Amino acid sequence: MHTWPLFPVTVVGSLPRSPALLNALRRKQAGRLSAAEFAPIATQAVQEAVALQEQAGVDIVSDGEQWRDNFYSFIVEHVDGVRLMSLAELLDYVENKAAFERLLNALDVPAFAIKNPVVIGPVRRREPLALGEYQGVAAQTTRPIKIALPGPYLLTRSMWVKRLSAEDYPTKEALGNDVVALLRAELLALRDAGCAFVQFDEPVLTEVAFAGPHATHTFMCAALSEKSSPEEELSFAVDLINRVVQGVEGIKTGLHVCRGNWSRQESVLLQGAYDPLIPYFSRMQVQQLVLEYATERAGSVEVLGDLPPDKEIGLGVCNPRSADIESVEFIVGKVHALLRHRQPEQIYLNPDCGFGTFAERPVNSMEVATQKLRVLYQAAEVLRQEYR
Ligand SMILES: [Zn+2]
Fold first, then answer.
1. I need a labelling partner for 50 at 20 to 30 A (CA). Which of 9, 97, 326, 371 fits?
2. How far is the CA of 260 from the centre of ligand 1 (A)?
3. CATH 3.20.20.210 matches 19-387
4. Measured in angstroms, how far is the CA atom of residue 274 from the centroid of ligand 1?
């Protein structure tokens, strides 16, 4: 059984990649570097990422997603029936190309740099998605480990592009069944290997909650496939995640929802409080919700008081996209506000999101990321004195 102190410090997933790793990743993608040649470079990067987190005082560590191009595209390497396409390539297949292009520009999204997995055949797990990553971190540390996996809703929505996928999956619901099986198998494999915490990333849920069926979509996937009403979409998301985690014991499960992490320009990122999502969060059978609260965009923690009393919160208390380092007082203040609604042992401290969600677009340097993690640790120590 894993143990950790009160107010454990953890990460949402990614850390920036070193220039050497990025270079190797590009060469691998271009077919100029084999998987075997890439492995020692990624292993070295993971070693550094883990050491950095340990030195900063992170209690539950990740591998910094150093093997991945981004937090969901990496699955193409482990699954048959899926092809990676840049947003620029996808432009040829979306229904309204001009609108999609305008949207990418308005949102400050580099269409060439962000790649999306698309279903082009039956989805079959060729090998585990992240078990190898877990084993790579476990070889470097005795600390408990968190592995982030793409959420079932994100995967289903982003991978199903009608013109390319409909032959094998006439509806996104049909694809959802295979995605659930894929993720549940992975969750069980990680649990059996000793992983402490699996976090499912569902960054598009806020967009779904705020946008009507015909409103402007985020680039990530909403523009790519048809969408029903927000209520239907969110119920679909609840159903998918519950089928993945239902009855699985012996591992902590979490769900991460943010508002985009592709730009340092706050104004282009989604905003809005979590209120509309609370009824859906309440029905999700994950133990923890990993939410962003470091910027004003996410509103107040007061809405979390409406969640069932057993839900833990991974509280986002530093902005991964800014150069300013949050103060200990700021972080402690956020936790104090949440303590009106949760017990001390239900609150985890983490950044709002990853520091390098998209390999080609890190939102911070390793130096700043480390400083931010260190302040999280300092704040945790203050809180531990107060609540031990
Ligand atoms: Zn995020």
1. 326
2. 6
3. yes
4. 14
Hey, how many other C-beta atoms are within 10 angstroms of the C-beta on 37? 12
DSSP states along 1-56: -----SS-BB--S--PPPHHHHHHHHHHHTTSS-HHHHHHHHHHHHHHHHHHHHHH
For 79-113, the pLDDT digits (tens) are 999 998 887 788 788 767 777 777 666 666 666 66
> If you measure from the C-alpha of residue 101 to the centroid of ligand 1, how many angstroms do you get, rounded to a whole number?
23
Nearest to 119 by CA among 83, 150, 67: 83
Residue type, 63: D
The rounded Å distance from CA 12 to ligand 1 centre is: 7
Q: What is the DSSP string of 244-308?
A: HHTT--SSEEEEEE-S--S-S-GGGS----SGGGHHHHHH---SEEEEE-SSGGG--GGGGGGS-
Q: Closest by alpha carbon to 380, among 61, 52, 13, 5?
A: 5
Ligand 1 centroid from CA 357, angstroms: 8
Summarize the confidence of residues 354-361 as an average pLDDT. 83
Q: Which of 49-58, 122-131, 250-259, 266-275 is least confident?
A: 266-275
Q: What's the Rg (C-alpha) of the chain?
A: 19
Contacts of 15 (CB under 8 A, 6+ apart): 49, 52, 53, 62, 64, 65, 66, 354, 355, 356, 366, 369
Ligand 1 centroid to residue 258 C-alpha, Å: 4
- Could you tell me the two tokens for 147? 């592995």
147 contacts 133 by C-beta, under 8 angstroms: yes
Tell me, what's the pLDDT at 357? 80
What are the beta bridge partners of residue 117? 84
CA of 152 to the centre of ligand 1 (A): 15
Distance CA 344, CA 146 (A): 20
Q: Is residue 51 a contact partner of residue 45, using CB atoms and an 8 Å limit?
A: no
- Give the Å distances, CA to CA, from 52 to 116, 213, 369, 371: 29, 43, 10, 10
